[in-house]
Fold:
Amino acid sequence: MKCFVCPVCKGGLNDDGKTLRCSLGHCFDKSKFQYVNLLMSSKSSAKRHGDDRLMVRARRDFLDKGYYKFLCDEICNVCLNYLENDSIVLDAGCGECYYSSAVINTLKGNNIFASVYGVDISKDALEFAFKRKSGVITAVGSVFNLPVSDSSVDALLNIFSPEAFDEYRRVLKSGGVLVRVIPLEKHLFGLKEAIYDNPYLNDVPSADIEGFRLCEEIIVKKEITVNSSEDILNLFKMTPYYYKTGKSDQQKIESVNKLVTQAEFGIRIYRKES
Structure:
């Protein structure tokens, strides 16, 4: 494979359709959902890795309603502007591949053919990713220890996933593109107002990243109206707020049938410096 490597010896992997195997004989079977588990689980004592099924399903159902399509379209446009034929793209923390599936389909529609890979620590997320049938090649792994070879990636997508910049520098080619998507200060402030007595603004991280040059930043803002209590609950459940909120505050949102909230994102595009 062009991108994934053996997590044991870091050697290249050959794909026979059912199994990935390195030259030293380390072997990794594909699941029935076609992802391969390249996570060194012994390094973690956690019983569950990544987003659970509740969060993954809620995010899938909410995103598939098109509420964030305006953001997805902008990410696809960025990829069209920065990618060339035969590029290797890695979605680090890909979730159920809503964004990377759209990217691969947009590129194909514009006669740009790229190999798109996704890594996520959640098996549940990659099961849902498989059902999109988009052609994204997926593996279970941590963004802090990517099962990806050095300097092999032309573009890396970092969409609401952890900041593992040392790893992103390692796997990107010199001059490679990092597309980072972050929530801005007032993102989902209307949702917070419906839940909390004292809603707070988001902290926006610095744009400076060692070893990367910021090329441009695109601000994407839209006021969205969610008219379904089911969709409102899915929006809540797909955020970290759900797991950090007490039961009494959780119950507030269950009675809300209409929600108007800001959806505000920053798309920062970087080049890896030599």
About this structure: DSSP finds nine helices and eleven strands in the chain. The domain at 34-40+49-272 is CATH 3.40.50.150 (Rossmann fold). The mean pLDDT is 94.
